[in-house]
From TrEMBL:
Residue runs in coiled coils: none
The name this protein goes by in its record: GNAT family N-acetyltransferase
SUPFAM superfamilies from the UniProt entry: Acyl-CoA N-acyltransferases (Nat)
Membrane-traversing stretches: none
UniProt cross-references to Gene3D superfamilies, sorted A to Z: 3.40.630.30
Xref: InterPro entries: Acyl_CoA_acyltransferase, GNAT_dom
Species, as recorded: Candidatus Cohnella colombiensis
MF term (GO), any: acyltransferase activity, transferring groups other than amino-acyl groups
Domain N-acetyltransferase: 13-164
Length: 168
């Protein structure tokens, strides 16, 4: 039987505590346009400003590294606690993007959010232009519930808020 070499196989993904070395590695990831707006600031700047996963307390409380079966860093998730919700954030290593891994990464984040706070609402924010991510999140069970503009590292951005497990 012929094999399809172009078939995309999603590896088994695992969450582990994010190390400072992994955080620094993530800060160096570069994405092709138009996704290049998701690049993190330079590591030294992140350390000086104690920004996100450069701050050890934030890293420990909110961030997890995602490894494949060979214990290679392939992504990360963020679980940001809100009043009655957990806001998730996701990132895949650039060479792992557009390989069909987004669904597995999203499911991993959902499962961890439910483990941490079983009765919390799970939401995320996604830029309106990012149709690839929106499709992934919709397939995972998220629904667009709100639309607004917010300041981000790369300027003012139009966002959708998407909530898991509700239907419109």
């Amino acid at each position: 039987m012929p094999t399809n070499d172009s078939a995309k196989i999603t590896p088994k993904l695992h969450l582990v505590n994010m190390t400072a070395e992994e955080a620094q590695s993530i800060s160096r990831w570069t994405y092709p346009a138009p996704y290049d707006c998701y690049r993190w600031p330079e590591w030294g700047e992140m350390l000086r400003e104690e920004r996100e996963f450069a701050d050890p307390h934030i890293r420990e409380a909110q961030y997890q590294s995602v490894h494949d079966d060979s214990h290679t860093l392939v992504g990360y998730i963020q679980l940001f606690p809100l009043d009655r919700a957990i806001r998730i954030g996701l990132g895949l290593r650039p060479d792992c993007c557009n390989q069909g891994w987004g669904a597995a990464l999203t499911r991993l984040a959902i499962d961890e959010a439910l483990r941490r706070q079983p009765h919390a609402e799970i939401d995320l924010e996604v830029e309106e232009w990012n149709k690839r991510a929106i499709r992934t999140y919709e397939k995972a069970g998220f629904t667009i519930t709100d639309q607004y503009t917010k300041r981000a590292m790369h300027g003012d951005v139009a966002l959708f808020c998407m909530v898991y497990g509700i239907s419109r």
